[in-house]
Amino acid sequence: MAAVLELNNVSKKFGGLTAVNNVSLCLSQGEILNIIGPNGAGKTTLFNCITGIYRPSEGRISMPGRDVRIDGFPPHRMAELGIARTFQNIRLFANMSVLDNVLCGAFCRTEESILDIVFRTTKFKMAETSVNSRARELLKFVDLSDKLYINGSSLSYGDQRRLEIARALALEPGLLLLDEPAAGMNASETNALAALIRKIRDKGTALLIIEHDMRFVMEISDRIVVLNYGEKISEGVPEAVRNDKKVIDAYLGEGDQ
Amino acid sequence: MLINNSAGKLISCLLLTAAFFFPLVSGSYMLGVLSLVVIYLILSLGLNVVIGFCGLLALGFAAFYGIGAYVTALLNPLIALPVLLAAVVIGTALFGFISGAPVLRLRGDYLAIVTLGFGEITRLFMKNMDWLTNGPKGISLSPPVFLGLNLSDKRTVYYCALSCVSICVFFLYRLQDSKIGRAWAAIREDEVAAASSGINITKMKILAFLIGSVMAGLAGFFFAVNQSFVDPNSFGFDESVLIVCMVVVGGIGSIPGVIVGTSMLVLLPEILRTFLGGFEPYRMLLYGVLLVSMMLFRPQGILPEAGRKAELIPDTEEIKNDEDSNVYGERNR
């Protein structure tokens, strides 16, 4: 499988604090990779480096498929390259309708210029129609098609999570980053989410997920990466990681030998 | 009363049509007042793009108004009307870009302070650059005449300005109903999420700022032509605040709201002046009282945009703020 994202020795320092230390990882097309680790391990910081919100202090991030080095790009450039994300604490456009939220996600996927818009050219009309039908398809895909004109903020928590995923998918991403997608969900919602994630994977999108719900993680991941104090301490298939002594120590503390 | 988009368009249309017929029944005093309404409409609709659509609190808006007026006054004797209009548009767009590009990376209060400073600097330049602007004495101009169009006739100026407003309203609705309008709204709601959704926030903010400043420049043109005279005092801080009031009172982001708000704030003092002698000194006091009561009783404005709540909810989420400040602080280091 072709690699979609490669991190080489990426570090992120905030003054004296090293939040992410020399992390390397590689992600292939259609793969689900989970990042786990105790609180403060640097998982979200790593996400912010990959999506351009932070500029990595050292190291290199690249997209082998497109043959570009992308570290230091601003967030909208990352998005244009097909890296979409959701946020740990949901960040919807709260006062916009569900449909408009998804339409915003497709912003850089249509080409109409300001003149096309002002003079309502055929190019504008075609772009609007195609973006609209795609947004409706996506909302159907995440099971929100009966709530198109409701404000984002009036949705229930689980619906908001799924709307955020739909907005990210509108970008037609090759790589989707989900930051704690199952947080605050009950068991049946988590199961539905797992099914949704598999459907997204089946379309060929690679997924990088931060999650604390271990049952969920073990169930859906192809591979797991464990971070502790910003460093990668383990990597492998779920079974291997589960039995790795370093991982157990990181979570439960080291026992007396 | 919340109004949806098509009702809003209808109200805007009706108001502008009414404005078309007013001068037929009014005398020259009323025409003067109406011209003022229309000129302020161009200004407040322009500021509405910046504050309302894109959510950027810019306070020095009168600077662009002044630049448009001064460009008109200075170049009027030299060039024909169409070239003059082009010069006003290009001049204010240029100033908008120069002042906007570095400043628009700031947010909220910081942006407000810097634009406020820019507004004051511009006014001081107008006041003190005697060789160019004739200082506090101002510049008189004879209104341009081009082909059959005689802009020394107040009625002609009124109808030209009204056409300008109508065209602007038409284009603004189209912009609002497009991916650009959605991108502005997204930036207003959450910049980090907007950037992560592929929206180039700096570019979209500059676009909003440019549209706003060009409209202010056009308002300046009509102001200069209508008064046949410009001086620095017409473009001070009071003026900037007044324009912000017009947008806020009407309903931030709502085109019919801004039209109503602007008409109210220009007409109200005139009506009060007619009925209460010696009212003039209390004009600013009235605006203050009006603003405070609006904030207390109806923060969303008279005719707010559909689906838009008063965005006055404090945001206490720590991580969100941290990411916010990092997009700006960290990236630009």
Overall body shape of chain A: globular
Mean pLDDT of chain B: 87
Low-confidence stretches of chain A: none
Structural class of chain A: alpha/beta
- How many domains of chain B? 1
Q: Name the helix and strand elements of chain B from N-terminus to C-terminus, one letter apiece.
A: HHHHHHEEEHHHHEHHHH
Number of domains of chain A: 2
Work out the largest interface and the residue count of each chain.
A-B, 48 and 35 residues
Sheet-strand content of chain A, in percent, reads: 15-25%
Count of runs of 4 or more consecutive helical residues of chain B: 14
Biggest sheet: strand arrangement of chain A: 6-7-8-3-9-10
CATH topology of the largest domain in chain A: Rossmann fold
Question: Using DSSP, what is the number of strands of chain A?
Answer: 10
Radius of gyration of chain B (CA) equals 20 Å
Radius of gyration of chain A: 19 Å
Q: Name the structural class of chain B.
A: mainly alpha
